[in-house]
Amino acid sequence: MWARAVLLGHRSWMGWHRGFTSKTDPQGSGRVTAEVIEHLERLALVDFGSQEAVARLEKAIAFADRLRAVDTEGVEPMESVLEDRCLYLRSDNVVEGNCVEELLQNAHRVVEEYFVAPPGNISLPKQDEQQPFSHN
Amino acid sequence: MAAPMLRGRCLGRCWALACIDSGSRHGRGAATGFTSSGKRGQSFVAQQPLLTAQKSRKGEHKWAAVVGLEIHAQIASNSKLFSGSQVHFAAPPNSLVSFFDASLPGTLPVLNRRCVEAAVMTGLALNCHINKKSLFDRKHYFYADLPAGYQITQQRLPIAVNGSLAYSVCVGKKWRQVITKTVRIKQIQLEQDSGKSLHDELRSQTLIDLNRAGVGLLEVVLEPDMSCGEEAATAVRELQLILQALGTSQANMAEGQLRVDANISVHHPGEPLGVRTEVKNLNSARFLARAIDYEIQRQINELENGCEILNETRSFDYKLGFMPEPNLPPLLLYDTASLPAGADPQQVINIDRIREQLPELPSETREKLIQQYGILPEHSFALLNEVGLLEFFQNVIKETRAEPKKVTSWVLNIFLGFLKQRNLAVNESPVTPSVLAELLNLLDRKVISSAAAKQVFEELWRSKGKTPSQIVSERKLELMQDEEALERVCHAVMEGHPQVVMDMKRGNPRAINKLIGLVRKVTHNRADPTVIKEILEKQLSS
Predict the structure, then answer these.
(1) A41, B32, B176, B408: which has the fewest Cβ within 10 Å?
(2) Which residues 6+ apart lie within 8 Å of B530 measured at CB?
(3) What is the ipTM of this complex?
(4) What residues in B contact A87, CB-CB < 8 Å?
(5) CA B179 to chain centre
(6) What does the alpha-carbon distance between residue B74 and residue A60 come to, in Å, rounded to a whole number?
């Protein structure tokens, strides 16, 4: 479970982490503060409830940090393997839609012709309010 | 100038040119509290009861407010930004949704050419630099009306940057002085709209309609160059007029085609900027200024009471949810010089061509009106501020010989006044431009007096089908044409009231008015008061 959590949070974490360590810890010792954990949990909706999980996270980050050993001075980052392709422009005509029955077939619950979702976003409780994760 | 037509313009009591006094009472009649329907479940402004500001014993420090805006305008196109489903305001739920809009696996975005053209047009009209290469990104967040879990937008490299929007503010007594202000435009980007959520509190569920999901939006980001609600509202109004003139968006706030989020902070002049708060999803022009001013005042009160301003949106500012959109290559635009030879015209967009085809912008239209008809700047604003009014005005001018100033006065005061009183739009008016033109012709030829013309207008409004000439003859409103008969009447009146004549001779200015009144009564108001006065004076001196 934690491995997937790391993968989920990892890519978006990288950009922020780079900035974070450069400001607070140029050595990159990999210490991850409670504040950062809370942030990650909010974004990736994953529960890092145990010390072990945090330790694994730190190791994973250290592993990924080895990317920095590559010298990329003066090299333009590649955004997409499609960057040399032509972006096709579609004419402004209505050619799709009108398939509400088909679409609703995928839905677990519907009300008239609306999809049904749980109410709003449930915001995560703050760090101190959280129940301790029972680690087995 | 009648007050009702100044809707949407800065009403002079604007604090744009002065700092906000900490001791002054917020005079705009602020809202008593409001909910910003927080996007994504966040509430951004605490609901507070309206606080009356403290007396200035707290110190004479002046406050300055800083307001920035993020405006989302729905692009007027037939189909959506990345799919071929229809864009339409009212339709059965989920009927205008394609597989891509519903985010079914295996679907891919295909960019709509019209939306790109709309973005370029808008960028050019707002003096922006058009980026010949722009990129698409994914902005990730979880919400039920965003089925993909991300919105395709242009965060890193948008299609247009560094523009400006000029708007005019009226200040001074009687709002006569017009000052032009400018707000910088940080960027314009293309992005997808989300679907609509209907919250069903009772059954603890949310109903989702994806008809709006994927509709093309132009996000216009205005730098925090504005300093009060009125300035912000005026800038938004001008942007609305520009978008409507371009045809890139209908920009109707009531229908959700134009949505505004405001970023507001206060500080003491000379000191660094304060903490920003965000007021989101303002969708009424009238409410916009009030909501912003209310938030400004709220922040001032909080700070004066020693509290801190909390920014609850800060956690979302880290831009962590962004990644490049892997399914879309960079968007490349060309100009005449760089256009590749032999390229398929459907597949390339030429910025120069679009610039050549830009329609006339509101500021140009106003300037032309002033030059062509010699009307005042504030009148040109008023003419453009009401849907259809300019066309009405121009149609009247075409068919009448009356002077433009006369036409302006009649259209802006009397005609517009009647419309506003009855809450009608220009196209619902019972009086057509031709009819008004005919009436003004009668007035111009001195067939009727000004007062009589107003009576006729009232009658025209009530009973359709009658022409002005008909009403004039029915009610015998024609001015007396027989000068000699009028002279005889004047003579008779003077003979009948020797006392008043004596007053006149002694130089009493009101005496002549009494005589004029008497003559008018005798002639059943069918004589022009100015002519009567001339005759009386002539007869007196002889």
Answers:
(1) B32
(2) none
(3) 0.74
(4) 111, 328-332
(5) 17
(6) 43
